[in-house]
Amino acid sequence: MKFVNLMNYKNTGVIKRFAVSMILSAVLTAVAPTANLRSASAQTTTKPAGNNIDKGDFKVGFSPATLKKNPKKTMDKEVAASLIELTKPLNEIIALPYDVYLNFDECGEPNAFYNPAVKEITMCYEFLLDFEQALKRFQKNRLKLTI
Predict the structure, then answer these.
(1) Nearest alpha-carbon partner for 63 in 101, 19, 31, 105
(2) I need a surface site. Which of 1, 7, 36, 62 has the fewest CB within 10 A?
């Protein structure tokens, strides 16, 4: 299967929907035993002093361990900007015991995964394209139902 210009994928609305679903899936499955939702009173822009649970944040990019192996690894700036927009509210409501890195990468197959060794959630561009096509089919079918 040939993927065209994945690194320049610019549909930020789909990127955000996809990223939120993948991030929350990873948090609920892989990171969940050590992550906690903050209470409404704890949702501030700064971390409360003495908070033993919340020692990390979602960060956009590749983990230091990944960059050590591949220093030239980069992510499209617009895609990164879309993820940065998402991390702010997520960091306010999810308490993480360590930093978790979020990134998009070419994987050779539709996939998304959490790598606990490097504390990184990788969302594959190929999966993003599949997600967009499924979203379009859903919207088209929903439109048929409302007519």
Answers:
(1) 101
(2) 1
Q: 112 and 22 in contact (C-beta within 8 Å)?
A: yes
Q: For the whole prediction, is pTM greater than 0.85?
A: no
Concatenated DSSP letters for 32-52? Answer: GGG-EEPPGGG--SSPPTT-S
Parallel, antiparallel, or unpaired for β 112-115 and 100-105? Answer: unpaired
Q: What is the Cα–Cα distance from 42 to 134, expressed in whole angstroms?
A: 37
58 or 33: which carries more pLDDT confidence?
58
Side-by-side strand order, sheet with 100-105: 58-60, 100-105, 120-124, 112-115
